């Protein structure tokens, strides 16, 4: 009988890719943020309806609902904003919004969850809100590692100036493009 050779579980594969991307970004995630990112990626891997979502409507519905429904809807908004800004940043152009729209909406969704949750989980969602751009950078680096996709300089300028992306700023500096310290966007 032939042996079946596997290279680890799906979870291990995602975790390995997250680690590699973190190294490319000079960002090491702690265990909680790394686990959240890995399991979020696993949850959304086969979500064919991701592009059909109108995030602003879902965000408002989440804010108006109560209890678990509120948290679930806002988590979906935060996760989808993270995926759009990290994996599909050019989608914002087709929707006639800037990528920082997804960053701001995602941060806000996670922040509102942290206000509604109990202590342990509240801290996780507050950190997701605070580290949103770092997570976005890691997702962008994952895409580059996986299929060589690289954004243009204009996109990197937007990420650096409007979102505060340190990865984008480093990539611009590698091409001798430097930003004035006051050009960075604050939270």
Helix content: 55-70%
Straight-line distance between termini: 59 Å
| Extended strand count | 0
Shape: globular
- Low-confidence sequence ranges: 1-6
What percent strand? Answer: under 5%
Q: Based on helices, strands and strand pairing, what is the structural class?
A: mainly alpha
Tally of separate domains:
1
Task: Kindly provide the radius of gyration, computed on alpha-carbon positions and rounded to a whole number of angstroms.
Answer: 17 Å
Reported for the largest beta sheet, the result is:
none
The H-and-E topology, N to C, reads as HHHHHHHHHH
Question: Tally the helices: what do you get?
Answer: 10
Mean pLDDT: 86
Architecture overview:
- By secondary structure, the protein is mostly helical.
- It has one domain.
- The chain has 10 helices and no strands.
- The N terminus is likely disordered.
Task: Write out key terms for the chains shown.
mainly alpha, 10 helices, 187 residues
Q: Quick recap of the structure?
A:
The protein is built from ten helices and no strands. The chain is mainly alpha-helical and 187 residues long.
Topology:
Blueprint: H1 10-24, H2 31-44, H3 55-64, H4 67-87, H5 91-94, H6 99-116, H7 119-130, H8 132-147, H9 153-163, H10 166-174
Helix pairs in contact: 1-2, 1-8, 3-4, 4-6, 4-8, 6-7, 9-10
């Amino acid at each position: 009988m032939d042996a079946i050779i596997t290279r680890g579980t799906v979870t291990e594969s995602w975790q390995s890719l997250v680690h590699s991307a973190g190294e490319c970004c000079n960002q090491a995630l702690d265990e909680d943020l790394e686990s959240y990112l890995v399991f979020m990626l696993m949850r959304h891997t086969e979500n064919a309806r991701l592009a059909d979502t109108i995030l602003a409507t879902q965000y408002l519905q989440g804010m108006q609902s109560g209890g678990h429904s509120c948290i679930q809807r806002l988590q979906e908004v935060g996760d989808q904003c993270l995926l759009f800004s990290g994996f599909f940043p050019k989608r914002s152009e087709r929707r006639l919004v800037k990528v920082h729209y997804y960053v701001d909406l995602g941060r806000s969704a996670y922040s509102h969850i942290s206000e509604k949750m109990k202590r342990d989980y509240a801290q996780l969602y507050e950190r997701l809100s605070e580290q949103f751009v770092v997570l976005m950078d890691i997702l962008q680096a994952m895409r580059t590692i996986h299929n060589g996709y690289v954004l243009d300089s204009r996109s990197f300028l937007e990420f650096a100036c409007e979102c505060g992306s340190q990865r984008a700023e480093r990539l611009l500096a590698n091409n001798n493009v430097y930003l004035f310290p006051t050009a960075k966007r604050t939270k």
